[in-house]
Design brief:
Structural class: alpha/beta
Number of domains: 1
CATH superfamily: 2-enoyl-CoA Hydratase, Chain A, domain 1
Shape: globular
Number of strands: 10
Bound molecules: 4-(N,N-dimethylamino)cinnamoyl-COA
Number of helices: 11
Distance between the termini: 45 Å
CATH class: Alpha Beta
Strand content: 15-25%
Largest sheet: 6 strands, mixed
Radius of gyration: 17 Å
C-alpha cells in the first residue's frame, strides 16, 4: 500500500513502521492516523510478521503531539467524535493487537505522541528524548487515552502531577517513573528494538497472543474512564482557554488563560 506520511519496512519477521513528517516533528494529523491504522491492520493480518516496531523519522522527534494546526478549529462535537474515532482506529487498536508492538521513542513524545507510545506494549526510549502530556497548556486534555494509560503505567499520583502541570520528563526520569522500559543512545535505539523483536520472534506466536489478550483483559474496567475522557475532551473545544491555547501555539507566543 502507498502511504504519504509513514514508511513500512519488513526486516525478517518484524514490521517497522516509521512516522515520516519530520518537518512537523511527526505531528499526528488525521491522515497519518488513518495510515497508521491501515499499516497496523495489515501487519496484524500478515502471517509472516511476528512483531511490530513503531518509531519516528529524524533524530529529534518520535511524535510532537496531535497536529495542533489541524485541531485548533474543531467544535465540541468534532472534538468528541475525533477523539472516539482515534481511540477506535488507532490507540485501542494497537493496544489490542495480538502481536507485540514496540515503541522506539527516538526524541520528543508529547501529547498524542506519548499517548501513541503508551498504547504500544513495550517502550524503549533514546537518551535525547523528552516526554509529557502538555495538553492543559493548550486548554485541552489528553484525548487519546492518556488520562487512563498514564495512571495505569506510573500510578495515579505521578500521572496527575504530570498532566495538571503539563510536566516534561527526560528519558532517564521516564524510565525511573516506569513510563519507559529502557533507555539507549539514539544511535543504538533501533538496533536494540530489533534485538528485542528478534528474541520475541523466536517464541510461540500463539502463546504470545494469549498472553497479550490476558494482560489486556485485566484492564477492561478502564472503559468508563475512556468514555469520560472522550466527553471531557469534547467539552474543552467549547472553551475560550482552548482557543487561546492553540492560537498562542500557532502565533508562537505564551497563552493567557482566563478559565472560561
Ligand atoms: N502540531 C503541529 N505542528 C507542530 C507540533 C504539533 N504538535 N509540534 C511541532 N510542530 C511544528 C512547529 O509548528 C514547527 O512548524 P513550522 O512553524 O516550522 O511550520 C515545526 O514543527 C518545528 O517545531 P519547532 O520549531 O517548535 O521546533 P523546536 O525544536 O523549537 O521545539 C517542541 C520542539 C516539540 C518543543 C515544540 O515544537 C513544541 O512545543 N511542540 C508542541 C508540543 C505539544 O504541545 N504537543 C502536544 C500537543 S497536544 C485530538 C486528540 C488528541 C489530541 C488532540 C486532538 N482529537 C481527537 C481531535 C492531543 C493533543 C496533543 O497532542
Amino acid at each position: 500500500m502507498a502511504y504519504q506520511y509513514i514508511l513500512v519496512e519488513h526486516m525478517d519477521q518484524t514490521c517497522v513502521i516509521t512516522i515520516n513528517r519530520p518537518e512537523q516533528l511527526n505531528a499526528l494529523n488525521k491522515q497519518t492516523i488513518q495510515e497508521l491504522h491501515d499499516a497496523f491492520e495489515e501487519a496484524g493480518k500478515n502471517e509472516h510478521i511476528r512483531v511490530i516496531v513503531l518509531t519516528g523519522s529524524g533524530d529529534k522527534a518520535f511524535v510532537a503531539g496531535a497536529d495542533i494546526k489541524e485541531f485548533a478549529n474543531f467544535t465540541i462535537e468534532e472534538g468528541k467524535e475525533l477523539s472516539r474515532a482515534g481511540h477506535d482506529m488507532l490507540f485501542n487498536f494497537i493496544e489490542k493487537m495480538e502481536k507485540p508492538v514496540i515503541a522506539a521513542v527516538n526524541g520528543y513524545a508529547f501529547g498524542g505522541g506519548l499517548e501513541l507510545a503508551m498504547s504500544c506494549h513495550i517502550r524503549l526510549v533514546s537518551e535525547n528524548a523528552v516526554v509529557g502530556l502538555p495538553e492543559v497548556s493548550l486548554g485541552v486534555i489528553p484525548g487519546y487515552g492518556g488520562t487512563q494509560r498514564l495512571a495505569r503505567l506510573i500510578g495515579r499520583g505521578k500521572a496527575t502531577e504530570l498532566v495538571v502541570s503539563a510536566g516534561r520528563l527526560a528519558a532517564n526520569e521516564a524510565v525511573q517513573w516506569g513510563l519507559m522500559n529502557h533507555v539507549y543512545s539514539l544511535e543504538n535505539l533501533k538496533s536494540e528494538a530489533m534485538n528485542l523483536a528478534g528474541k520475541i520472534s523466536k517464541q510461540s506466536p500463539a502463546a504470545i497472543a494469549s498472553a497479550l489478550r490476558a494482560i489486556h483483559a485485566g484492564f477492561v474496567h478502564e472503559q468508563t474512564g475512556l468514555e469520560t475522557e472522550i466527553e471531557e475532551f469534547g467539552i474543552c473545544f467549547g472553551t475560550e482557554d482552548f482557543k487561546e491555547g492553540t492560537t498562542a501555539f500557532i502565533e508562537k507566543r505564551k497563552p493567557v488563560f482566563t478559565g472560561k
